[in-house]
Amino acid sequence: METSSHDLGPASAALGALAAGDLGPLVTLLSGWRLVEDPRLVEAAARRLRGRDGALLSARTLARLAVAGARWREAEASFEPPLTTDAALDGQAALAWTAWFAEDFYSAQPYDYAVNQLIPRVQAVFQGVLSAAELPPKARRDTLIELGEGAFATLLTARDEGSLPAWLDIATRALERGPGGPLRCLSLVLSPQERASAGLCFASRRLWTPTLAAIWPDDAPRGRAARLSAWLRDDPEALPRITHMHLLSRLIERAAHAGPEALGDAELRAICRQNVARARARLRATLAARPEAVLSALLGLDALHARTQDAAGRYAYAWVNRELTFGLSMGHAPRVTPRCVAPDPLPEGATDADPAMSIDEAKGWVLLVIFRGRLGHLWRWVYDGSTGDRDSVWGALLKSKLPPSLREPGLHRPRLRQTLRAELPELLWELEPVLNSWANQDLSEPRRVKARVLKLLQSTAPIGQRWPARGYVESVQHVIDARRQLQRWSRHLAPVLSSP
Amino acid sequence: MPENGISEFELSAWLLGALDPDRAEELAQAVARSPALAERARARQRVLERLPTLRARPMPIPGSDWRGQLVARRVHAGNLGEDALGEGLRPGDRVELRVNALTDPIRRELVAMTRDAEGRWDVVWPEHADERTPVEALERDADGALKVSLSASPTIGTQRWLLVFPETPWPVDWSLPRAIRWEQLMARISTGAVPLFTFELEVSAP
User: Fold this and answer.
1) B86: helix, coil or strand?
2) What is the ipTM of this complex?
């Protein structure tokens, strides 16, 4: 949806008032964003609307931000309508959940509910989505056999150290529907300590830095993290409000990066959905560490059977997406939502200028990975821990081609992998303009391709990054393939893709 | 790229009610706006309606360490795939399998099952207490792999088999009806604690 010049009046007026120190019109304009419920966040938003040079953003961009707030509030409201109750099935669901949380999967009642209600729902969604994939007949058949024979084990009894058990994952998803949308619903179930911990997690993320710097401009990163943690601990309603502030911040970043025309309706929603999906996954994982709280919250809800079916369907969609991305490996336990891992504490005296790992160097290295046609390997390694093969090109990229700040002892590169788990989607997103230029190279003059691509890469990556001597023409095809993958992921996978 | 940026995957998920409600509303609006997308949705719905129902019974864990370790060789002539044992087998034909040696120190025994017409696993070996087969009693080839011989069952078509190696002596009450005699083992299998693998035999009419 375009914003006509007629719509720019309120935005222009709000900017004018803001320049004169009056926040009132801005509050009215941004009323869709829950941040307006807290004056501290309104002030932060006003700070964020200024660029590094102190100039306010354009009325057009502000108008789009206002639209985005209203749209996102509507999106959250779609989680609110009550689901259909069924006394008999709700009772069965309550008994089943109670048993599963006690790890009783084989007693008659929970067994029957699993076999007749939960598993068919997951199978139907998994199989239905899978039917849209072009697969070799044997791969499809093997997957369906495993889905059929393995469903009980994979959904109920299987364990994976790094991920939530499927049934617990489904349980946390069942808590996401209600007033205010998923973030608020989850926040209200978290304990104060868990919310404080979530705050530290958010503060450890690179992308949260501009958001938190706008809220607490006079604090260093460590101080901001402590303040955020305390705020969330003390106020369960703060999390959705601060998250809205973060969404606004991300959209401003996007507009600064690609112009207000990049804030079309679909893109606005995709950016918000992607950022909130990560926050939701993090909160679900945090909550899952206290199963008794999840069960207690579940049993306090109405329409438990419908909620279970809804959550199981959404879980199944996330699962099949993941399997399709990782080549239908169908491990013994689905790895849909990683368990929550406490972030390393920010070092004393840390500043915004010295992140633990150079994201610029990571960007350069990711470009090199794409150059070599190994984006799929990178994605699988980051999110699955293994590429599923022994590809020597990938091995070299991970070993000898790493720039200095990304090197660490051991072959598994745990710090790099952990960083990329959190950062890779945004990092690829930021590289999008470069990839577009790279993919659109004119190949009719192959001799010139190297010079042009090299210039492009050198303008993006840090000085000192080493580039291959040859393979530039082939790299264009690799980038075209990578963009295709990214389009699929960003349109299809990113909203459900979780990060720790 | 499909029109409206909506993939067949997402369209399927929408039709199955598996999207977040906000995204589901967006798709509903897009389908209402676009006749082409609406037609795609109808076509996809037809595909979904034709999909068979899958079984939901507790069965072996997919991807367990034992999958892929099967080294199968049919006694009869012909090449065999890893998990679909050739063609031309007839009911009662002998099939020999080689199974990588168990490496854990637990003493185990062999239990063989086939899937019955209702989709349940049916234990075909041992049928009596005196047929119990400790792993130590199985022959080994030069590489140490266990040799397991079995006979194709009378069912014509694809026979799905399961070899399980529970700890021995696995507690079995032989006085119970056959249908429930092995329930404890099935429950144990579902926890992933029992080595096993599955394979198929293609059996033709004699």
Assistant:
1) strand
2) 0.77
Q: Under an 8 A CB cutoff, do B22 and A120 touch? A: no
Region(s) of chain B under CATH 2.60.40: 70-203
Report the number of secondary-structure helices (H) and strands (E) in chain A.
24, 0
- Residue with token string 């997406």: A321
A148's CB contacts (< 8 A; 6+ apart) are A123, B54, B55, B56, B59
Q: Does B10 touch chain A (CB under 8 A)?
A: yes
B-chain CB neighbours of A314 within 8 Å are 18-20
Q: Which two tokens stand for residue B40?
A: 């795609």
Instruction: Give CA angle at B98 (B93, B102), nearest 5°.
Output: 140
Q: Which of A419, A212, A191 is CA-nearest to residue A296?
A: A191
B9 contacts: CB under 8 Å, gap ≥ 6: A129, A132, A133, A320, A321, A324, A492
With tokens 């779609």, the residue in question is: A78
Q: Chain A within 8 Å of B49 (Cβ-Cβ)?
A: no
- Crossing angle between the packed helical segments A265-288 and A182-189, to the nearest 10 degrees: 20
Using the Cβ of B46 and the Cβ atoms of chain A, whether some distance falls under 8 Å is answered with no
User: Which CATH code, of 1.10.3470, 1.10.150, 2.60.40, 2.60.120, is assigned to B70-203?
Assistant: 2.60.40
Question: Of A158, A316, A329, which is closest to B61 when you measure between CB atoms?
Answer: A158
Residues 133-162, chain A, touching B (beta carbon < 8 A): 133, 144, 146-154, 156-159
Q: Which of B5, B26, B47 sits opposite A131 (nearest CB)?
A: B47
Nearest-CA distance B53 → chain A (Å):
8
Q: Indicate yes or no: CB of A153 within 8 angstroms of CB of B26.
A: no
Which of B23, B44, B55 is the closest to A148 by Cβ?
B55
The answer to whether B166 and B108 are in contact (CB under 8 A) is yes
pLDDT in tens, chain A (500 residues): 444 544 788 999 999 999 999 999 999 999 999 999 999 999 999 999 987 777 888 999 999 999 999 999 999 999 999 999 999 999 999 999 999 999 888 788 898 899 899 999 999 999 999 999 888 887 787 788 778 877 887 888 777 767 789 999 999 999 999 999 999 999 999 999 999 988 988 887 778 888 999 999 999 888 999 999 999 999 999 999 999 999 999 899 888 877 777 778 888 888 888 889 888 988 998 999 899 999 999 999 999 999 999 999 999 999 998 788 766 767 666 777 777 666 666 556 565 654 445 677 888 899 999 999 999 899 888 877 777 778 889 988 888 788 777 777 766 777 788 778 777 876 787 787 788 889 888 888 888 899 989 988 887 777 777 889 999 999 999 998 888 777 665 443 333 333 32
Do residue A310 and residue B59 have CB atoms under 8 angstroms apart? no
- Whether residues A492 and B26 touch (CB distance < 8 A) is answered with no
Token pair of B155 as six digits: 């069912």
| Cα first-last separation, chain B | 51
Tell me, rounded to whole angstroms, the distance of Cα B29 from its chain centroid: 41
Q: What b/e sequence results for A327-352 when a residue is b if at least 16 CB atoms lie within 10 Å of its CB, and e otherwise?
A: ebebbbbbbbbbbbeebeebeeebee
pTM, to two decimals: 0.73
Quick check: B166 contacting A, CB < 8 Å? Answer: no
